[in-house]
Write a structure and sequence with these properties.
About 20% of the residues lie in helices and about 30% in strands. By secondary structure, it is of the alpha/beta class. A 6-stranded mixed β-sheet has the order 1-2-3-4-5-6, with helices on one face.
């Protein structure tokens, strides 16, 4: 397992590219922004992007989905169905936390509507990336459809915002 981490957005969110060393297949977990840097990291490792894997649909985790989807349209977009209403409301999310509309462009929050979801996460499902096996665990709370991705063989878990410093 190769993990490349990028810190993006004004919220300092962590986007992770997780790839299989042997097959060079990869997923991008929570592309909050900066799709160009994400693609550079993918290309640096010689990865083929299999999916855009979303732990939850807050803007700092999905703000870069549309741009990344344009650069890598073959990658499936994966999200839990219970977060779809948050995902489709992406262009309005900055207002939810009180950011004045006039400040959105300067903060990088002038989002376009996100592309459609290709597949929905289901609690307990297995998801393969090359030879990597992930178990999807539905962990509602932060959002109704929040999931974590657990790779038991590698002893790694990608938690989105279920756990973070100061929470």
């Amino acid at each position: 397992m190769i993990i490349e981490e990028l810190t993006v957005t004004a919220f300092q969110q962590h986007t992770r590219i997780v790839g299989c060393e042997k097959t060079r297949r990869a997923i991008c977990i929570d592309p909050g922004d900066d799709s160009e840097s994400i693609v550079q990291a993918i290309d640096k490792h010689g990865f083929e992007l299999q999916a855009i894997a979303i732990t939850h649909a807050h803007m700092d985790h999905v703000g870069g989905v549309a741009a990344l989807n344009k650069l890598r349209p073959e990658a499936k977009i994966l999200l839990h169905k219970a977060d779809e209403f948050i995902y489709t409301a992406l262009p309005e999310q900055p207002a939810w936390i009180g950011i004045p509309r006039t400040e959105w462009p300067a903060m990088g929050f002038d989002f376009e509507a996100p592309p459609p979801v290709d597949e929905y996460w289901v609690d307990g499902q297995s998801y393969k990336v090359g030879e990597l096996d992930f178990k999807v665990l539905h962990c509602p709370g932060h959002t109704p459809g929040h999931v974590v991705l657990f790779a038991p063989k590698e002893r790694k878990v990608f938690v989105g915002d279920v756990l973070f410093a100061g929470s």
